Amino acid sequence: MEQNTNEVVKQPNALKVILDVVFIHELPSYGNKIYYGMGFLALLSLVMALISGIVLAFNGMTWWLQEPIGSYVRSVHTWSVQSLVAVLLLHITVVLLTSGFKASKKIVWMFGSTIFCLALIQTEFGYGLRGDFESQWRAISGADFWNGAYLGHWLNPNNFNQVFALHILIIPALMVVLFFFHFLLEKSYGISKPYRSDVEYEMVPANHKIMFARGGVLIAIILVLSAVFPSPFDAPYSAARVAQEDSNLLGQTILQEFDHTSDTATYLVSINPYTFDTREAYVDIPYKQYIAATGGVDMLNIYFSLPPDTQQTVLDEAKSYFNDNSTVSAVSVSSNPIILTVNALVEMARSGLYDAAINQEDQNSNPTRLLRFLSDTGVMDIEAARIHMSTEEWGMAREMSVPGLHALGSWWFAPIGALNSTVLHEDENGDRDAAAILGVFMILFILFPFIPVLNRIPEKLNLARFIWRKEKSKDGETK
Prior knowledge:
Layout: H1 14-22, E1 26-28, H2 38-59, H3 61-66, H4 68-97, H5 106-127, H6 133-148, H7 160-189, E2 203-205, H8 208-228, H9 239-245, H10 247-258, H11 278-294, H12 299-304, H13 308-323, H14 330-335, H15 337-350, H16 353-360, H17 368-377, H18 379-386, E3 401-402, E4 405-406, H19 414-421, H20 430-446, H21 457-461, H22 465-468
Antiparallel strand pairs: 1-2, 3-4
């Protein structure tokens, strides 16, 4: 009889093959502790942020602001970012305490520390896309920060299109690439061995099951926190909202734009995006649209046809009217071309058309000019102070309060917030100096393994003993 040779050959599981190639399979006995699983948890947090971010981008701002499921996904994205930064900090702390940046692993540290710095920058660009007041406030504050860093020509947080591209594509792509090389190097070199010769350890199999279990717990925590503590929302400002709440304030601001006395018109650092003519942006162009739509008399033409002395008198009368209209007679109001022009623009604002007219002026950098106008009204500073986001209260390191929890916000920028509230509080160049301090810190952080004396501090402190310590089994023996 012939032997049956048609036996079924069992094919290896594809996922198992991939995991065998990707994961580290042997490590020091202390390597299965959670301290050495932070890199994996950080990657999971990044994946959660990427997936939720893609869903948000695909469905759009209206969906994530108005639909319950959209609001939940927005919260998942927020808490994934909180998790990413927190886990990265813990991971960095373990590497520092164990001096895991020595010798050939210096380059591994540089990849990891660059990922962390990109994550911090990425969070602020993300906040600028949320579509609420905090988004507007962070965009305005961030623009001043980048201008202070002399990078305003290239980075403008007020420009939604630019921030969207940076946050959705450019920075995530960089982070993923860096994560890939960071992991390849870590796998190649293996987990760092103790720098102390008296630390006992042995090589053991990697416990991937407990690693995945911890990852599952982290994902569950993110999902639960997103449901219990949703991402906060504070209604955004618009010229229409200001006109409805305080029409005189809107009129005063339009006049300041007209005579070039507003904050935007007098911005000291003459770099983009604040080099436009405020009279043209906030008065001339919107008013021309108003006249074209209504067919009325062009009061600005009448004003500019007057003698210079008369123009100044008319302008002063208009300022008095909007500051305290009880001092200006009704007859004067009815004949003052500037008052009539500004009143027309205030009515235009109430209808929402003024916002649209401002945004249409520079499609490439929307909504830069609208945000600058809102900032000039002063309402943004008042609202920021009300929800505890002003510089005096550590600014962007905070976030508005929500029932049951004071939202964490960008707590990782607390040191910069403390500087702004103390050392830099009276500094006229606070944005510039804060940018310089943060920039120097990031450079030193990335180059830390190469800095003599400084890179020996963790070893001198000798705080890694609890990380390397052998665990005791149930029978009392160490393992």
